[in-house]
Amino acid sequence: LAQDRFVEATKKKCNDYCYGPYEPVCAVRLNAYKTFSNRCGVDVINACVEFPPYVIVANCSCNFETLEVQFE
Q1: Least CB-packed of 2, 5, 7, 69 within 10 Å?
Q2: For residue range 6-63, what is the model confidence (pLDDT) as tens digits?
Q3: Helices then strands (H, E): number in the chain?
Q4: CATH of 2-71 given 3.30.60.30, 3.20.20.140, 1.10.150.170, 3.40.640.10
Q5: Total-model pTM
């Protein structure tokens, strides 16, 4: 019963749409980088994908210069 509620809550979150300011973040999943319009976008997609989830690696759009600075 509790598990059913968790599954339903996850499905609802998966179908959410993020509103709010454009505050791009760069996230990575399975060595693939993706820019999201804000942190909410990462949360929503993580509710839809199987593991591993996207992990935010920078508080800006993804690009090689940003990532080199982030990981130095």
Answers
A1: 2
A2: 445 445 567 778 888 999 999 999 989 999 999 999 999 998 887 899 999 999 999 8
A3: 3, 3
A4: 3.30.60.30
A5: 0.70
